[in-house]
Design a protein that fits this description.
This is GntR family transcriptional regulator. It comes from Paenibacillus gyeongsangnamensis. It holds the Pfam family FCD. The chain is mainly alpha-helical. Helix content is about 70%, strand content about 5%. The chain is built from eleven helices and three strands; from the N terminus they run H-E-H-H-E-E-H-H-H-H-H-H-H-H. A three-stranded antiparallel beta sheet has the order 1-3-2. A hairpin with a 3-residue loop joins strand 2 (about 65-70) and strand 3. The longest helix is centred in the middle third of the chain and has 25 residues, at about 80-105.
């Protein structure tokens, strides 16, 4: 995968935010692959900024477990930690299962239509084989359910723990272009919410979040060097 840098950043924005967001996007989308060594010099040349925002971004990414820094080796893109990913998935499944039941009572017709529109956009991503945008829309789909139920802080909590699990999800999308089961599950979740069927909504959501678990071993075999 080639590294992508958005050089058309808003000049009003802070350079450190641009550096952090650019690096995180490339790490999450595996363009900066797990286990890869990156130097400050390389990042300065890549992003065309001074060392200070680079160092600030590396500190923040280290706190998020996406970078490991050692005195001897410098900065390395962290390997995917399956134990951390599983813990994140447990928290997400527990919280989202409860919230999707609430969604069957709380979401109005306009909010359900928004979910349907997101799935339609995901289908367009499938036709264009755009896994990066599909992941973004997948996140927006789940976020919309949480926010629609007034669970903004709950969604924020899930995101704090999600870095390792999200990289596995992106790796799955990048490794297998057959995304029909994901889209079918999203359709099922929306249908259950629309029909106000909390049991079916929870079942569809749990099946959806377990999908990567089922495929985990296959991903480990294909990309062994990416995993801790």
């Amino acid at each position: 995968m080639s590294i992508q840098i958005d050089v058309s950043r808003d000049k009003r924005g802070l350079i450190r935010d641009f550096v952090y967001e650019s690096l995180k996007k490339n790490i999450m989308e595996l363009r900066l692959e797990p286990g890869r060594f990156i130097s400050e010099k390389e990042l300065v040349e890549m992003l065309r900024v001074s060392r200070t925002p680079i160092r600030e971004a590396l500190v923040k990414l280290t706190q998020e477990e996406l970078i490991e820094t050692t005195p001897q080796k410098g900065s390395i893109i962290s390997l995917i930690d399956l134990q951390h990913a599983e813990e994140s998935r447990f928290v997400r499944k527990t919280l989202e299962s409860a919230v999707v039941r609430e969604a069957c009572e709380l979401l109005d017709k306009e909010q359900v239509l928004h979910l349907q529109n997101l799935v339609s956009l995901q289908e367009l991503c499938e036709s264009e084989q755009n896994y990066g945008r599909l992941f973004e829309l997948d996140e927006e789909f789940h976020k919309s359910i949480m926010i629609g139920c007034g669970r903004d802080r709950t969604w924020g909590l899930i995101q704090q723990m999600a870095t390792h699990d999200n990289r596995i999800r992106i790796l799955r999308l990048a490794s297998d272009s057959d995304w029909k089961i994901i889209l079918a599950q999203h359709h099922g979740i929306v249908r259950a919410i629309k029909e106000k069927d909390p049991d079916q909504a929870e079942k569809m959501l749990r099946d959806h979040l377990e999908l990567v678990v089922i495929e985990k071993e296959n991903l480990k075999q294909k990309h062994a060097k990416f995993f801790k």
